[in-house]
Amino acid sequence: MKLEGVRVLDLSLFLPGPHLTMVMADHGADVIKIEPPSGEPVREVGLKQAGVTTWFRNTHRGKRCIVLDLKSEAGKAAFAKLVEWADVVVEAFRPGVAKRLGIDYASCQAINPRVVYCAISAFGQTGPKVNRPAHDLAMQADTGVVSLNRAPDGTPAMPHMPVADMCGSLMAMSGILMALLRREKTGQGDYIDISMQDALMSWLPNVVGPPFANGRDPVIQHERSWGGNAMYRLYQCSDGRWLAIGGSEHKFAENLLGALGRPDLIHLCHQPPGPVQNPVKEFLAETFSRRSLVEWTLFLHDIDVCWAPVKTLTEAFNDPHTAAREMVWTDPDGGKHLGIPIKFANEPGRINPALDAIGASTEAVLKELGLR
């Protein structure tokens, strides 16, 4: 597998760090998860299958879990030996905590100059907000993303995806892999400062037109990405289900409106998003309200237009296409795992469903290090 031989120390908790190190484990990395004596919190967060939470199963499979008290001399000594062994260290403490514990990048670099050290935090290691705590919701709010997601009455709605956590995870993994690639030429490791807010902001190139070009906030209901375009919008069917028309290219407007007998409206879809397209929105809303989602599924099947039913999570994960892409995998104990999204032709990733109990690998790892 692609990361076979790469050795990772994971000091992080919850989602961004554990997710990225699990992806590395799926592709062959040897990941040692260092838990505090109280354990990884997500062991007890949410629903369980076969005695294990789905959150823990889908962020910690294939890792060796050890417990170290990093405030004790014995814990610090064991950590130092692990740093000698490691290629990558991932931590997600508040800025300053790693230094107080003596496990910061400078301390690790002194032990192992080749180590790649990645620190994930809410606001990064510099700036006025450096010491503010935050989880995903606060990150999305402070970045302006919550303000983009409005309920019909205009109030901001709760986001339903942990996008700050997840884009922080993926940006961190990208940085780690770049640093490892560069190390092949220089022999030197590096320090990576990942701010979840920075990562989330970097994901907004298609929506920053109004503030960047005009110095204004977007008018949500008029913007292309949030319903201002008739061909990029949600519509309700007669049975209460919804469908998404999700492609605003001219050809799709021509194909759909032609099939619905209203080619006279096509020219409006060539206009900028906003009120000028209201006649098309009104026509489509009234038209889709006449039939059920099943009927529209049959009607739209052979029309070249971007669309999709608004599915529930259960429907989405039971979809035959999801099965064909192997995005749900069931282990021998009946526990369900999210599949591997990075699909290599050569040396594909492989799910190792092993899940350590708290500290299950502590003695074995310490023996490997010569500390037992």
UniProtKB/TrEMBL annotation:
InterPro entries in UniProt: CoA-transferase_III, CoA-Trfase_fam_III, CoA-Trfase_III_dom3_sf, CoA-Trfase_III_dom_1_sf
Superkingdom classification of source: Bacteria
Keyword terms: Transferase
Gene Ontology MF terms in the entry: transferase activity
Keyword Transferase: yes
Listed name of the protein: CoA-transferase
Lineage per the UniProt record: Bacteria, Pseudomonadati, Pseudomonadota, Gammaproteobacteria, Lysobacterales
